[in-house]
Amino acid sequence: ARASVFTIDMSSPTTTIAAPNKPYYKDLSTLSGGSSDPNTYASGVKGVDISIHDGAKYWNGTTWVTGSETYIAASTPTTTTWQYEINTSTWTDSVTYYIKTKSYDVATNTQTVSTAYQFICDRSSPTAYTTNPPDGTTGLEQLPTISGTCGDTNPGQINSVYIYVKCLTGDAGLVGKYWGKHGDETWEWGTVEDIWTSTSTPGLPTWTWASNVAWQSTMEQYEIAVKPIDKAGNGDYQVDICTFTIGPPAPVSSITNLQLNKYYSSLINIAGTTVNTTPSPGWQGVGIKRLSNEIQ
Q1: Distances (CA, A) of 238 to 104, 124, 151, 219, 233
Q2: C-alpha radius of gyration, the chain, whole number
Q3: DSSP character for 110?
Q4: Measured between alpha carbons, how far is 296 from 242 in angstroms, rounded to an integer?
C-alpha cells in the first residue's frame, strides 16, 4: 500500500507596512514591509499584492486607472519581506494616497483584511519670518525673546523652525561667528556656519525662542536667519534674514538735591546719580540754562 502525507493549511498569512510610515512625504521611491504565515503547519507566504489609490484612481503598475480596486504584485526579496519600487514622478503634490497590502500562501489562502496606511505627498516649501526684532531695528537695549511667523501650503504642516544668530560688527574675535552649541555642547560664539538652534512652535503659525545670546558690551549689529522645515522635509533652503543692532542700555542720570519749581536762595552744589555707564565709568556733566532775567 502506498501512503500520502499532506498538511491542511486553512489559515491566512499577514502583512505589515514599513514604508510609508509617516503622514507626509515629498518623495517615496520604495514601498516596503513584512509578511508572515505564522500559524501552526502554515504553508508559508508565496506572494504579496499591493493596492495604491489616490482617492479617485488606482495605480496599475504603469498608469492611473478608474474602476474597481486594483492590486499589483510586489516583489518578495525574502519569505518575510516585500517591496515595490515606484518612480517618484508617480506622486502628485497635495494628494493623499491610500496603500493596502495583502498576502497569499502556498496553500492559496489569502489575507482576509488588508493592511492599510495613508500618506500625503507634500512638495511645497514652508515659510518663516522674523518679526521680533523687525528687520533693520537699531538701538535695542534688550532682546529676551526672538520670534516670528511661519506657515505652509495646505495640506502641508510645519514641523520645526530653526534660527541662527550671527555677529556682524564689533569685537574682531566675534565678527562672522555664530551663537549656538558647538563642539562641547556649550553655548558660545563659534565659527561653524551651520549652527541652527531649534525654536518652540507652541502656537502655530508663530514661533519663539527665549534668547540666551551673550551680546557684546557695545552697540553692535547682528543677523538672524530663520529656516522652517515641514513634516515632509521641505524647506531646507527657505531662509529669511533680518539685521538689527543691540547693546547696553543708554546711561540715565537724575538730579537728587533739587526739586522742580522750588525757589532756592543759594546753591552750593548740584548732585545726582547715573546708571548704565558700563563697561566704563563714562562721563557725567551738568548743563545750566537761564530761563528768566527777572529778579524777585
Answers
A1: 47, 11, 12, 29, 12
A2: 35
A3: B
A4: 59
Distance CA 225, CA 233 (A): 18
Nearest to 12 by CA among 34, 39, 33: 39
Q: Is the pLDDT of residue 286 over 90?
A: no
179 DSSP β-pair partners? 165, 189
Which stretches within the chain are classed as H helix? none
Q: What is the pLDDT of residue 39?
A: 83
Identify the band that residue 290 occupies on the pLDDT scale cut at 50, 70 and 90: confident
The CA distance from 19 to 202, in Å, is 29
Beta strands in 37-80 (DSSP E): 45-53, 58-59, 64-65, 72-78
Q: How confident is the model at residue 200 (pLDDT cuts 50, 70, 90)?
A: confident
90 phi, psi to nearest 5 deg: -65, -35
How crowded is residue 282: how many other Cβ atoms within 10 Å of its Cβ?
Answer: 11
pLDDT tens for 176-193 read 999 998 877 889 999 987
Which pTM does this prediction carry?
Answer: 0.78
Please give the backbone phi and psi of residue 88, each rounded to the nearest 5 degrees, phi first.
-65, -20
Going by C-alpha positions, the residue among 83, 81, 84, 78 that lies closest to residue 61 is 84
Distance CA 8, CA 109 (A): 11
> According to the per-residue pLDDT averaged within each range, which of 65-69, 195-199, 291-295 is highest?
65-69
How far is the C-alpha of 36 from the C-alpha of 25, rounded, in Å?
27
